[in-house]
Amino acid sequence: MLGLWWALILAVIFVVVNGITQMYLAKGLGYKLKPTGLAYFVGVLGNLFTGSVVPISGQAETLTLSGKIKDLPTRVAALLIAAAVGIIMGLTGSTSKIAEFAGSTAVAGMMAGVGFILAGVGWSMCKQETRTGVVSMAVAYAIYMTTHDLVYTIAGSVAISTLDFCLLQGRRVDLQKLEIETGSTPESDEWRFWKKAYWMDFKLLKPKFGWAAVMGGLSFICLNIGSNISFGNITSSIAGQTPKLDSLTWINSLADVPSILFGGAPIEAIISGTAGVPSLGIVNGPWLAGIIMMALSGILLITGLVGKLGKYIPAQSIAGFLFIIGLNITVLPNLATVAGALVQVTEAFDANIVGFLAGGTACAITVISENAFVGLATGALIYNIPVLAPMLFHLFA
Hints:
17 helices; about 70% helix
């Protein structure tokens, strides 16, 4: 039992560390960190009452996409539009219906495409900071090939590459390089919540709704659907549990609202090492680990401690973890699912051919577009050709 609790502790610590690296990406894009802590607390409550094993945290894809909107009021409006639609979709069960409509092979193909993207990000990190990335990659594969345990893989690769960066190289992360001009006010380092300076970071922002906000909101909605289906399925699969995609959709959408209103970052579904925690007796290990991870992340953010820790944790320390999750955990099993449709010999062989084409196309388009929703939509269209083609023929005949 002690070993199980140790696995939980390691998973929580190193997924929190992973989230911290994403939060410095958010800071560089003009988001405030303290208000982002509010989103994590909403995530805690959501998973606590729904039993979801998929935690929410900083997600590079959403942060990067939203950061392309440089006008802060427009960005806030776009994120609020996406959050509102996401809440409605989650409560009405639309996310699950979309997954059913797309078909299992299209979803698997999209997930494989996301895996290639994640592996690519890990590889890019090695090129950005060669020594740190290579150390992370080497340690991650050494541990994973020996133990096949995701928790120890994360712990070892992040810890050793970070220690090498800080102690052997004697370096620190230059946070100034992460800052860009976005029109946002600098965030204070004040952590004492009884001081006026602390609450200056919680001023409500006024959204500016317009065509740019609507188009941005639609883009975020598409990405949110794709990431929830892909990351939600991947993390749930690691945990060995059925994904609760609708619950995940309304939880992460609702969580974004208080953060966005105060200039904080959106947080979304992630592929989380907490899913690899074994059950602790009658307690669902992945569920408990995800809740503790989000609570700890929220505390570190809202107290301002993340700002003081960031200089010690290079983003490239997660390169090995991302590469293994991308290639070994995501790409290989999902491509096997897509290929399996081709070799099945059943009465519905034609349907299997269509399923294979849908999955392969979804994978390719996801990689090319770097957008999970675009890949899924294309795969879903191919998957439903046998149904749609006769309807269109009768409609225009």
